[in-house]
Amino acid sequence: MTPSVPTPLAARTPPLAEPSAWHEISLTVNGRPVTAQVESRLLLSDFLRDRLGLTGTHVGCEHGVCGACTVLVDDEPVRTCLILAVQCRGTEIRTVEGLAPGDAPLTSVQQAFHECHGMQCGFCTPGFVLTTTALTEQSDRPDGEQVADALSGHLCRCTGYRNIRRAVCQALGERFGE
Ligand code: FES
Ligand code: FES
Q1: Mean model confidence pLDDT for the chain
Q2: For the 2Fe-2S ferredoxin-type domain, which residue ranges apply (predicted)?
Q3: Is the pLDDT of residue 15 over 90?
Q4: I want to staple 106 with a disulfide (CB 3.0 to 4.6 A). Which of 24, 110, 140, 164 is the partner?
């Protein structure tokens, strides 16, 4: 069977006031090709939210402290408030919208957060879920220190972290057959 070609994702382009300061970038977002004109200074967070309408990427502190804006860039967790869109030319980006699109079943990580009540307001959740997804995609099981290190870059104002830790443990346990 011939694999279906993903439909390009349309990016909104504001009026080009200073054309010399704009760059064309092509990248893949949630499996779909995107080509867009971006200003040099445009943050990836603003590109995803304002140009592509992917508002599941939440912006909290805007300076790399809270982790809410984390997405996966070439499978690595990256804070989108600290990287420019133009730096992501040619990369593959996954946002929370791409984990279980449409009617697709939740991923095991999303299911674990759901079952363990690993969220309250949900503001921090996309970042936690994407970082946990990256942990489950490693070939070797991360040890406790590596898990703590990965999660230490995420702040949650609601849950007290206990249920988030349970969700992460459940997801890792399922992935590594414990
Ligand atoms: S908004 Fe990016 S780390 Fe807080
Ligand atoms: S669930 Fe509200 S900030 Fe984490």
Answers
A1: 94
A2: 23-99
A3: no
A4: 110
Task: Please report the pLDDT score of residue 178 as a whole number.
Answer: 79
Regarding the beta carbon of 155 and ligand 1, being less than 6 Å apart is answered no
CA 80 – ligand 1 centroid, Å: 7
Q: How far is the CA of 169 from the centre of ligand 1 (A)?
A: 24
Residue 62 CA: nearest ligand 1 atom is 1
pLDDT in tens, 63-84: 999 999 999 999 999 999 999 9
Q: Which residues contact 147 (CB under 8 A, 6 or more apart)?
A: 135, 168, 172
Which residues touch 56 (CB under 8 Å, ≥6 apart)?
95, 96, 97, 126
Q: What percent of the chain has pLDDT over 70?
A: 96
Task: State the closest ligand 1 atom to the C-alpha of 58, by its place in the atom list counted from 1.
Answer: 1
119 CA closest ligand 2 atom index: 1
| pLDDT (average), residues 3-21 | 78
Cα torsion 41, 45, 47, 49 to 10°: value is: -150
CATH of 108-175, one of 1.10.150.120, 3.40.920.10, 3.30.1360.30, 3.40.50.720: 1.10.150.120
For the chain, which residues make up each domain, given as ranges?
21-98, 108-175
